[in-house]
Design a protein that fits this description.
Layout: E1 6-9, E2 14-17, E3 25-30, H1 41-59, E4 63-68, H2 86-94, H3 98-115, H4 131-143, E5 147-150, E6 153-156, H5 158-164, H6 175-181, E7 197-202, E8 218-220, H7 224-234, E9 238-244, H8 248-263, E10 268-274, E11 277-279, E12 282-283, H9 294-299, H10 311-319, E13 327-329, H11 331-352, H12 364-377, H13 383-402, H14 409-426, H15 438-457, H16 461-473, E14 477-480, E15 485-488
Parallel strand pairs: 3-4, 3-9, 9-10, 11-13
Antiparallel strand pairs: 1-2, 5-6, 6-7, 7-8, 11-12, 14-15
């Protein structure tokens, strides 16, 4: 098994060997959702990607502290610090308390993530629970001369910061280019420059969510919360910060600037970013009419879908692409993913029926396949290459089953280990079935097939074909072999 893990570091633009700050331990912070609406396909990709990453780290023997936040305050409608707080607006329109909105959609998010078989984070802090710490960090930045207060609001001084450090080092943006391409301060007259960002906003009279501070009654800026919560739970310097590519600028760039002022430039050692999901080649968005929630995917109730898709199909679909590459959603792609997942999982059932013999030597090909799988996963989480190796294994299983060729106990243990540790463990893929009803369904089908077997013994081919055709209409496919009858839904 490969002992070294390599990950692509957005900060250095290089794939680097991962070396934890503390041997045997990993601190990982991932930006979570802003909870003002139902979780959608865009939420699923980072959740699945970093879930697999955590599972891999733990399989390698690391003790992982995985922190993923909930944003419940400060995320305005525009990244330029204009518009209304998204949760505040939802609460006002629906005549609810903001924390009612937060609680409802947080529960919905957790339910969807559980359906996708993602493990819960070690810690899941909320921005609203860390107002005191955010105020303290703002005071640090003010004392360092990197922020200014105007009319009760506090802004980060990007130009001043850029003179001593470099704003844009993470995203590759150049401040001079931003200055020429940024529009005038329309509706942002308090700012010295349009690319300055809010650390604290004075609340308008109609704003529901507000807290007292040395500057005004108001609320913290969106970028501040992650700097505060990552340092509180992972330390002033920690291993890995993850999130979607859409957060690279301005969110993570601003976060890095805040960290540099208060903690030093090396506060995060590796930055990881997953790419976005498009739908039929277009960026997913409500304004384009191609926005699709996870509940719609699971139920099939969306114009772009021809059928419901099991959460494991969504998970498998996400893992078919490298996390840093684009992923284009379509109904056809999900149908293909569903078939691929069934073939992978069915391989395990077929393998269990292959006879075992002590007189057979262990297959070198199987050992090489296992090594390829782990090598791929440790090479910047290359799940599509790992899946390709798994399908090589499935092909080997089918060949062994079709020829009724026995396998050695070592082969049996190796294949079982791959399915348990990789397919179910690291990739988190499980059977696409309703676990509670499965024993009943299996029992009924087996009972019906006993009637069919008796009809075949009696040479009542009409009755045998009638049972087969009726089961086929219900979605149960029958395959008669030399010694038995196999079926699948």
């Amino acid at each position: 098994m490969p002992q070294d893990l390599f990950i692509y570091n957005t900060l250095t633009r290089n794939k680097e060997k991962f070396e934890p700050l503390v041997p045997g331990h990993v601190g990982l912070y991932v930006c979570g959702p802003t909870v003002y609406g139902d979780p959608h396909l865009g939420h699923a990709r980072p959740a699945v990607v970093y879930d697999v990453f955590v599972r891999l780290l733990r399989d390698m023997g690391y003790k992982v502290r995985y922190v993923r936040n909930i944003t419940d305050v400060g995320h305005l409608e525009s990244d330029s610090d204009t518009g209304e707080d998204k949760i505040n607006r939802k609460a006002r329109l629906e005549e609810l308390e903001p924390m009612e909105v937060v609680q409802y959609y947080t529960i919905r998010y957790h339910q969807a993530m559980a359906s996708l078989n993602t493990l819960p984070p070690s810690i899941e802090p909320r921005a609203s629970g860390h107002i005191t710490e955010q105020i303290a960090m703002i005071q640090q930045i003010l004392e360092a001369g990197m922020a200014y207060e105007v009319n009760g609001s506090v802004y980060f001084d990007v130009e001043r910061y850029n003179r001593e450090h470099r704003y844009g080092v993470l995203s590759g943006r150049v401040l001079e280019d931003l200055q020429t391409s940024t529009r005038d301060l329309e509706g942002q007259e308090d700012k010295r420059s349009p690319f300055d960002f809010a650390l604290w906003k004075k609340a308008a009279p109609e704003h529901i969510m507000r807290w007292p501070s040395p500057w005004s009654e108001g609320f913290p800026g969106w970028h501040l919360e992650c700097s505060v919560m990552s340092s509180k739970y992972l330390g002033q310097v920690f291993d890995i910060h993850g999130g979607g590519m859409d957060l690279l600028f301005p969110h993570h760039e601003c976060e890095l600037a805040q960290n540099t002022v208060t903690r030093g430039k090396d506060s995060v050692r590796y930055w990881m970013h997953n790419n976005l999901i498009t739908i039929n080649g277009q960026k997913m968005g409500k304004s384009l009419g191609n926005f699709i929630t996870l509940e719609e995917l699971f139920s099939g109730k969306h114009p772009l879908l021809t059928q419901p898709f099991h959460p494991m199909t969504i998970r498998f679909f996400i893992l078919q692409a490298h996390y840093r590459g684009p992923l284009d959603f379509s109904d056809n792609a999900l149908v293909a993913a569903s078939k691929g997942l069934k073939r992978l999982l069915k391989g395990h059932g077929i393998f269990k029926k292959i006879p075992v013999s002590d007189g057979v030597n262990a297959s070198e090909m199987l050992q090489q396949t296992e090594q390829k799988i782990y090598r791929s996963l440790c090479d910047d989480l290359n799940t599509p290459v790992a899946l390709a190796s798994l399908f090589d294994l499935v092909t080997w299983i089918h060949t062994a089953a079709d020829t009724n060729k026995p396998i050695s106990p070592q082969d049996r243990d190796l294949i079982e280990r791959i399915y348990e540790r990789v397919v179910k463990g690291i990739l988190g893929l499980k059977e696409d079935t309703d676990g509670d009803r499965l024993p009943l369904i299996e029992g009924l089908i087996d009972m019906i097939l006993e009637f069919r077997k008796q009809a075949r013994r009696d040479k009542n081919w009409t009755e045998s074909d009638r049972i087969r055709d009726k089961l086929s209409e219900l979605g149960v496919l029958i395959k008669d072999t030399k010694d038995s009858t196999e079926w699948e839904i």
